[in-house]
Design brief:
By secondary structure, the protein is mainly beta. It contains seven helices and 36 strands. The strands form twelve sheets. A four-stranded mixed beta sheet has the order 2-9-8-6, covered by helices on one side.
């Protein structure tokens, strides 16, 4: 059994009537679509209320205010059957309504479609007091200092830039920099030596005024000073032939001078020297080179340095000392750093001396400057793999390089030999005891003649090591000049002094309080000590001017 509602019956009746009318060709009623679709049930319209509005005001607002009217007219409505029905919208705000300061009014919007369906929505209107009135913020330029020996007018570009650099902003008015005034008249003159306090003032639209000051100073220039000229350190070239000025080593030396001036800055390009392009540096000569520079004020300074051409078979002790070789700094209390940094670093060793001013590892560690020499005393490239002596260009000394048999038969200059520091032990045979001057393991040489320092010196000179026969024991200071405190065991530049042990090395300096003792240098750490001469220690010979 089927249950029909009254609506179902009505629709069915309509359909049957339509069919009959269509069959008879009659019936002009078009309330039912020709395709017999069913009309959806009647739906309510869609109402869109405007977004809440907030008005900042310290007085009440009438409904006639354009901001209120814009709000009220912003509501829209649409209906599925009737389309846009925004004109049907009403609201509950009377024409004479007043919105009070501090209140939030709920406004109800209502719309009714043509079928009588009604919809309502709300939105709010708030009247808020403005933020308390605040002073503007003015920012003045930093103090201006002009160096001049004459007075400066207010229309000077530097003054004008200063005066126009002030800015101002206000919470309500925004950027009001154009409102800024100052107390400098157009014809004001800034006198030399004076500091003028300039007052900047700005007023916002509410009449709030703020002032701040900045200064303009006119200072006399510093007294005219002479330029500073720095010339290269003395250059020594080892050569058995004359050297032309065009030689790259000479040119590098000549171009190494630099100069600066307090007013002109770097004026190195203005440096001249007295070496002509065709000058020839003779072997054995030391040429004094004069460098001169002149600044833009005509102030001239001259300083000299030297170029020496030294024969490979000659050496001159300079009396200078090497630096320590230390290139790292201590950092109390955490220990040592790997570079020149740490506590009070300006007072530490790594911040001073040749290790800073001549730090170039290509010719020896840091400030050391070494040259490898062959068996005849001729200079070799730093990359040479075999050499017999080393020249120290800081001290001017030439040093013996030790050999190492590496388990084979030890030669005369082997690093494994030890010697007593004496000149009267020619009959001593080192093979009788192992703790006294061990120097020979066979009778290839005269028994015992080389196991003390004097005998060793004679033997090396007889061979003409590096083309010379004037080798001797170094003084304690000369020997200590080889110490590189940047390393230990051995504390010496092993790149130029291979086969160096960490043992103690004899010097030729006697101990003043006891003639049976002499000074030594411990190359494990680089410290000095004295010991009895009969102890067996290492030896490294040196050459210098006699």
């Amino acid at each position: 059994m089927c249950n029909f509602t009254r609506r179902n019956i009505a629709i069915l009746t309509c359909l049957i009537s339509s069919m009959l009318l269509s069959a008879c060709g009659g019936g002009g009623d078009d309330s039912i679509p020709a395709d017999n679709t069913v009309i959806e049930p009647n739906t309510a319209p869609v109402l869109t209320a405007p977004a809440a509005v907030i008005i900042i005001s310290d007085t009440a607002i009438l409904v006639s205010d354009t901001r209120i009217q814009t709000f009220l007219s912003a509501a829209t409505a649409n209906d599925a059957e009737d389309g846009n029905i925004s004109t049907n919208i009403t609201h509950d705000i009377a024409d004479n309504y007043t919105f009070s300061v501090g209140d939030t009014k709920i406004v109800q919007f209502t719309v009714t479609d043509n079928d009588g369906n009604e919809v309502s929505k709300t939105a709010t209107v708030s009247i808020q007091l403005p933020e308390p009135n605040t002073d503007p913020v003015i920012t003045v330029p930093t103090a201006l200092s002009i160096t001049s020996d004459t007075a400066i007018l207010a229309n000077d570009a530097r003054i004008q830039t200063f005066l126009s650099a002030a800015t101002a902003n206000d919470a309500e008015d925004g950027n009001i920099s154009t409102n800024i005034t100052h107390d400098i008249a157009d014809n004001y003159t800034f006198s030399v030596g004076d500091t003028k306090i300039v007052q900047f003032t700005v007023t916002d639209n509410d009449g709030n005024e703020v002032s701040k000051t900045a200064t303009v100073s006119i200072q006399l220039p510093e007294p005219d000073t002479v330029p500073e000229l720095t010339v290269p350190t003395a250059l020594t070239i080892t050569s058995d032939t004359a050297i032309l000025a065009s030689d790259s080593r000479i040119q590098s030396f000549l171009s190494a001078a630099n100069a600066s001036d307090a007013e002109d800055g770097d004026i190195s390009a203005s440096i001249t020297h007295d070496i002509t392009d065709d000058y020839t540096f003779s072997v054995g000569d030391t040429k004094t080179v004069q460098f001169t520079v002149t600044d833009s004020d005509g102030k001239e300074v001259s300083t000299s340095s030297t170029i020496s051409i030294q024969s490979p078979n000659s050496t001159t002790a300079t009396g200078k000392l090497n630096d320590t070789g230390i290139t790292w700094g201590g950092d109390y209390s955490s220990g040592n750093n790997t570079d020149c940094s740490g506590e009070t670093i300006s007072q530490q060793d790594c911040s001073h001396g040749r290790d800073v001013t001549h730090n170039d590892n290509s010719d020896g560690h840091a400030g050391f400057i070494f040259t490898k020499l062959d068996a005849n005393g001729n200079p070799l490239a730093a990359s040479a793999t075999e050499w017999d002596c080393v020249q120290d260009h800081v001290t001017g000394l030439i040093w013996e390089v030790k050999t190492d048999a590496n388990g084979g038969v030890k030669g005369l200059r082997d690093t494994g030999w030890a010697y007593m520091n004496t000149t009267n032990m020619t009959g001593y045979d080192p093979r009788d005891t192992e703790d006294k001057g061990i120097c020979l393991a066979s009778s290839n040489y005269l028994d015992g003649i080389y196991c003390h320092t004097e005998g060793y010196r004679i033997a090396v000179n007889s061979q003409g090591l590096c083309g010379a026969s004037d080798w001797s024991l170094p003084t304690a200071n000369e020997l200590a000049s080889l110490v590189n405190f940047n390393r230990t065991s051995p504390a010496i530049d092993s790149t130029y002094f291979p086969n160096s042990s960490s043992r103690v090395v004899w010097s030729g300096s006697p101990y003043a309080d006891d003639s049976t003792r002499a000074w030594l240098v411990k190359f494990s750490l680089g410290s000095s000590k004295h010991d009895v001469r009969t102890e067996g220690k290492s030896v490294r010979l040196v050459r210098r001017d006699q």
